[in-house]
Amino acid sequence: MTEFPPRVDPHFDIEEYDPEADLMALNMGPQHPSTHGVMRIKLFLDGETIVKAVPYPGYLHRGVEKLCEKLTYVQITPIFDKHDYVAPMTNEQAINLAFEKLLGLEVPLRARVLRTILAELQRIASHLLWLGTFTLDIGGTIGGGASMMMYTFREREMILDLFEALTGCRFHYNTHCPGGNRHDVPEGWETVVKAVLDAIEPRFDEYEALCDNDIFLVRTEGIGVLPPDLALELGQTGPVLRASGVDHDLRRDAPYHAYDLVDVRVAVDDGCDSLARYKVRVAEMRESVRLVRLLLPMLPQGPIVGSKPIKSLIQFKAAAGQVYVGMETPRGELGTYLIGGGDQRGAAPYRCKIRPPSLHAMAALPYLLPGHFLSDVVTVLGSLDPIMGEVDR
Amino acid sequence: MSVYEDLQARFDLPEVPPEGEPALVDVSRHVELAGALKDAGFTMYVTVCASHFPSVTPKVKKGQEPLPPTVEAWEVATVLRRPGPNSEAFAWRVRVERPVVPTLYELFAGADWQEREQYDLVGVIFENHPDLRRLMMPEDWDGHPLRKDYAIDTRVAPWR
Fold first, then answer.
1. How many domains does chain B have?
2. In chain A, N or C: fewer CB atoms in 10 Å?
3. Please, what is the Cα angle at B157 between B156 and B160, to 5 degrees?
């Protein structure tokens, strides 16, 4: 067990800091290119070392939770595409899992297996985008800096093409509905998926070879150390939690979709730093390729919607009830706390609280940043993989 | 023996876990229950959800005695999780007629931002919270948008 430095108090009074020190307050953002959206971090610097960090989210707040109270269960799904615009597929699935639990709907096996395949493909696409932007964030660690991003976007395009063939959209698919999926697999899709996986898999070795250089290691090793107990207290999930050495993955530990049919190998790393988060994400991409290969032959024949086809906006009605459903998206546990019985017809939720993994990841910044140099802020921020649309909703 | 059975007698929970919604706990036992769950392995702070139940007058049929209006209330639901294989989530609610609930910040550092967000949007005040500021809305915003009496088309002055 490694020794961790004592926990930072994020609320300590900056006035109590050494009066001799020449402190400087620096605003990073809200339009800083490395903040992955609009996010302001107020930094107190002693020389170039961060003493205190105060993040200010909320610049992208669009009041989605209020909007959900005004729409019916059928209308809400497409809004969920737009929080996490890097992984819309899994976001749709998360809200529909909550609806299905509240409404008591059964999902046929074909839709469940298809959803699992889509979730794993989306995980690869999301992690690819993360890898590209992360290496760009830490600036020219591999030759020109942007070369890795070009490579990962090339592979991500292949997966977006697969989604386009299935749903007709490159983004914001709206392919899930309460009780099943809207679009069935087109003819020959499985063959294309297999070809894409065969093309992508050897490239992971190339990425690792590119990132295995001294500059990348110096920039990431020991930067942003998050001890496991603090990670759990802060509600970290997904790769951030697993890179802190906690063996927890909802796909294996609380299976949904068709994850009970396959054996998910969870990637864990004890490094607790930015390098560990990189390692976990690359390992997860390999695991996702393996899972899709396993699941493709398991896709059974049958219907993809359990209930009657959707003809009316108020088709699904639920009395009052409260459920919490969490699901493992590429960024971690995306949960929905849902209270039913919103309008007189019962077709809208009364309250829909979204639990975004990125918001919890951002809450770790005041603990992670103090003690690091200013240039490490983007490394720590990038390694947490936040999507501001999801943080602010 | 499940955690629910363990805690059932200690915290006056219903004998059978209520179907479809988390159990109600008295607000005075809120922090104690969270501590007991943390000791029982529920170390992951998942989420907190506050909701507003305004005072409404129940509708009655013609000729019946009118019923008194319901009491305005707030509910705060908290979810904790036990990480690792066979992970399990535990949720409970507290219902208060005055929007004041003790904070869980001392037990879970993650409660900091989550409770700030609920304070911001629903207006529940978390007692003893070290830094209860707005999280999502601008600091000079008027009202709490997720309250049921806050109309979705409320006109606001342009902000800065």
1. 1
2. N
3. 125
